[in-house]
Design brief:
656 residues, alpha+beta, Immunoglobulin-like, nine-stranded antiparallel beta sheet, 50% helix, binds protoporphyrin IX containing FE
Length: 656
């Protein structure tokens, strides 16, 4: 696909010149080389997903079930009148429901429940009457309205004097890749996403490149770049079609209804919009290119691709946050990556993908120095927005804890390798020094690494990030108590509605010790304090976590929470004190922040880089080893984007 997009770029002035110089030898060699690159790219594109998909564990769960009321494994004194399931992401009403059956397996409710009107992440059902004594199993199926991934699972609870044996809930698949999909679906999902990402990125990047590198450097828009954009958009549309099939198949346990999925689910509608837009724009670009109007073709392709990037971000994990900032950061991330990737593909094609560079050295040097300015700014924006996205998705850079984290690390390694090779090209400045076999081979290597990053990105976004369902840690309001006892408090999910308090002890509680959580609501003076008994959390094998569920934490409320330990002697003592507040979106005060907040670091670096870059550019300075004209536009454009993002991140803080 990438080589097919680049092929016509050869048809520009370069091929004409080589034809003049020795008609037969060179073009045949170029065709052979392009065929080789085409096969290599296609083999990578087909095999990598299968390889990556083979790591896909058939584990159910993507928009993670964070908690349920009644809780899994709990035994209630009286029967509940409502069952609520709280997920880590908003759920799709059409594809989310639960079944309730009793201990004998008799079905009490089937395909029941609907998203809560006050919280789209909650699936709940009201029961006509409290459930009588007995054990019950809830099996559930949910589809994420954010990115269309599907989930299934079960949990068991009891009422009255019953005992529950065996597993009381399904495995939590947070951090896994391709949850809910078998390897075949996983491979198709990666291929579909890689085509959908790669095609759009090349179409968008080529438009920017034509404007800032190809026209100034070659004196016109090569018709080939327009063909490249058309192929990219059409390939992206094909990728979206594959994703609709995968999505519809995963969304239901019965025969998939593709049309309903494509027109009736949020993820499906976004994919359909991308499919139609990609196809129509691809055809328009193709027609304009054939009519010899490559500039208009690229403009149309670039505009369509920028809209597609918006749709990609609106259908990704970034959309699971109520704040719009993660989506905006994602758009900049993919946009900057598009310029970098398309530049590699275009220069790769202009140097016959590892073949002999037949551009006049001056022309090649000019193009490389122009692209270097764009690449430096793009790499800075890719890294800053990538770190931002990584922090909000995994929330912990200290260890690789899941397949998702490992995949992200692999992506960064490929990127760093590509940037390393790119640094050689930058230092070479188009003089074709023999490092790693010369400029065209280095460009080919860098392009292949860039393609690998896109394929790994496709695998990554098919995973279930570990950070989004992490309970919100509350900072202690009494530092001495905290230091003495080392007891932590976290709230899951930390949004208005049903929540679970999680108390972490430094060690397993001694038997006979009792703990409770005493809550006082500060915004309703005179309100009765509540004391919740804390039970050992059955999901934590260390026995150090205690839990208590509440069916409703209201928005706009402020609380103090005291952890009370009652020893064997029966004398209660306070061992931890916390305070927190909630607004419409979640915990608005009392949230524990890391000693060094990566989001603040990213924001400051973006602001500093933008100010220095813009200042130097306005003072007439340009990035070293680049062409001043391109450097000025790239740096000023990048600084504007960087400054806006930096301020937005500082002002809005961690997205919720
Ligand atoms: C320092 C380097 C980078 C880091 C840390 C990084 C990190 C991330 C993260 C955390 C996400 C969100 C994943 C999710 O939604 O679950 C993401 C998305 C993405 N990244 Fe990167 N990335 C980097 C470089 C790149 C490069 C070089 C490319 C392309 C050449 C790229 C292409 C993408 C794409 C296409 C998405 C998907 C956007 C979506 O579906 O919403 N990234 N990246």
């Amino acid at each position: 696909m990438i080589a097919a997009m680049a092929r016509p770029l050869i048809d520009g002035p370069i091929a004409a010149r080589s034809r003049r110089r020795g008609a037969h030898g060179a073009p045949a060699r170029t065709a052979r080389r392009l065929a080789l690159v085409l096969i290599a790219a296609w083999a990578t594109f087909l095999s990598m997903p299968v390889l990556l998909a083979s790591t896909a564990a058939r584990v159910d769960g993507h928009s993670e079930l964070l908690l349920s009321l009644p809780a899994a494994g709990s035994i209630l004194p009286v029967g509940p009148t409502q069952i609520s399931l709280v997920f880590s992401e908003p759920i799709e009403a059409r594809y989310s429901a639960l079944d309730l059956s009793d201990g004998s397996g008799a079905v009490i409710l089937s395909a029941a429940g609907a998203p809560d009107l006050t919280d789209p992440d909650v699936l709940s059902v009201d029961l006509a009457a409290p459930l009588p004594a007995g054990s019950y199993m809830v099996t559930w199926h949910a589809s994420s309205a954010a990115d269309g991934h599907d989930t299934t699972g079960f949990f068991v609870f009891g009422v009255g004097s019953v005992s529950l044996s065996g597993t009381t809930q399904s495995v939590d698949a947070s951090g896994s890749l391709h949850p809910g999909h078998d390897s075949a679906h996983a491979a198709a999902e990666i291929q579909g996403k890689a085509a959908a990402y790669g095609g759009v990125m090349v179409a968008f990047g080529l438009a920017v490149l034509a404007l800032l590198v190809l026209i100034p450097g070659l004196g016109r828009v090569p018709r080939g770049s327009a063909y490249g954009a058309a192929v990219g958009l059409i390939a992206a549309a094909a990728g979206c079609l594959v994703l609709i099939v995968v999505g519809a198949t995963g969304a239901t346990t019965t025969a998939p209804d593709y049309l309903t999925y494509a027109t009736g689910s949020r993820a499906g509608v976004l994919l359909s919009a991308r499919l139609v837009l990609g196809l129509l724009a691809g055809l328009v670009v193709l027609v304009l290119a054939r009519r010899g109007r490559p500039a208009q073709a690229l403009l149309a392709g670039g505009l369509a691709a920028s809209a597609e990037i918006g749709l990609i971000a609106a259908g990704g994990h970034a959309a699971a946050f109520s704040s719009p900032l993660p989506v905006a950061v994602d758009i900049v991330h993919v946009g900057a990556a598009s310029i970098w990737l398309a530049g590699l593909v275009a220069l790769g094609a202009l140097t016959d993908f590892g073949g002999r560079t037949r551009l006049a050295p001056a022309v090649l040097g000019d193009l490389v120095r122009r692209f270097s300015a764009l690449a430096l700014v793009s790499i800075a924006l890719i890294s800053a927005t990538g770190v931002y996205a990584a922090w909000i998705e995994i929330g912990d850079f200290t260890a690789i804890r899941s397949a998702y984290d490992a995949n992200l690390a692999i992506k960064v390694v490929f990127f760093v390798l590509a940037v390393g090779v790119g640094a050689l090209n930058y230092l070479d400045g188009g003089r074709d020094r023999p490092w790693l076999g010369g400029l065209s081979k280095r460009l080919l290597l860098e392009t292949c690494l860039g393609i690998l990053v896109v394929v790994v990105a496709a695998n990554l976004t098919s995973g279930s990030p570990t950070g989004t369902d992490r309970p919100v840690a509350i900072s202690p309001s009494d530092a001495t108590l905290a230091a003495t006892n080392g007891i932590g408090l976290a709230i899951e999910p930390g949004r208005p509605g049903p929540n679970r308090y999680l108390v972490e002890l430094p060690a397993r509680a001694a038997s006979g010790m009792a703990f409770s959580l005493d809550l006082v609501r500060l915004d309703q003076p005179g309100g009765a304090p509540a004391s919740l008994p804390l039970q050992v959390d059955p999901t934590d094998a260390t026995g150090r976590t205690l839990a208590a569920d509440v069916d409703r934490l209201p928005a706009g409320s402020r609380w103090t929470a005291t952890i009370v330990e009652t020893g064997l002697g029966g004398t209660p003592g306070s061992v931890g004190a916390f305070s927190f507040a909630l607004d419409e979106e979640g915990i608005s005060a009392g949230r524990q922040t890391p000693p060094i907040d990566p989001l603040v670091v990213v924001a400051i670096l973006l602001l500093l880089g933008s100010l220095i870059g813009a200042g130097l550019s306005l003072a007439g300075r340009s990035l070293p080893r680049t062409l001043p004209a391109t450097s000025r536009v790239a740096v000023l454009g990048g600084s504007l984007v960087g400054a806006v993002l930096g301020v937005a991140i500082l002002v809005t803080g961690a997205p919720r």
